[in-house]
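ok trying again, last paste got cut off:
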Amino acid sequence: MVPEPPKRISPIIPKQPNLLVILIVGVVAATLTFMILFYFSKENYTPDDSAEPTVVETEKDLSDAPEAEKSPPSLINFQEILDSWAASLPKSVNYGVLVYDLDNEKTVGELNADQIFNLASLYKLFVVYEGYRRVDSNEWDGSGKIAGNYTISECLDLSIRESNSTCAESLLARIGESSLEAILNNNYNLKNASVENLTSSPRDFAKFLKLVYAHESLSDATFAKLLDSMLNQPATKSDLCDGSCDWRMGLPSGFSASAKVYNKVGWSYDPEEKIWKIYNDAALVSFPDKNRNYAVVVLTENLPAGSASVTALTSLASALEALISEN
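nice, full thing came through this time. structure:
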């Protein structure tokens, strides 16, 4: 028998390890190790309160910093000034006065502040403020014609700068008396103000001046126009004043050049009795060097004509400023 040849045995070659598996296992192991070490280090960590925190300084633009809030100036009480002024007036004069501190938002002196007075041309400030609001809100076109050949914008200016009655009456007619009255009474809460009767109290008119000063319904550019009309008022030819009306002869003339006086007057003169049946002056008064701002309202009836009427208003303004200068 021929023996079978021996079987050829193939050598056993070990398989090469899978590199991807090794990589995954390594990553998992490293992650677990890190998590275990982090857990125990957190458990055993005790913060050192004495350690100084690390501060990373970065450059800052100072324009990004909020402006520091301005503190209002000290409050000045003008009541003694007003009482002394009232005592100097003739007994026949009826008066109402209110001085309001716009920075501290407080009344700082008043006389008969809730009494109702005839406003005369002071009502024009109600009309103009609402007119400017409508132009700003595009309800009105400022270039539109009104009162003849005037534009609405021109009439808004002249109603204050020259107390132009034709312009003011045309603007009021376009707004509507009842509409404007509702705005004053309901929107602005001026319960004693009436354009139908042309009346108000010193307190309500001062509240309105406060609203004008804040000018939340007007753009800054429009507010600047209104202020210019109240500040720069050339004398105007008028039968009301025996030929020429000096709109600045009252309160503005009593303050020095240190004050900016933005005013509007309302007058009614009786040439036979030689008295001002109505002599009103209302103003926003600013003292830039003192950082002080006030609303001053003076409403009077039966004020003697001539120098006495001028002195009555200028003397009050001078006394107010003298006390401001002391503070």
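cool. The chain has a mean pLDDT of 85. Residues 75 and 104 are 7 Å apart (CA to CA).
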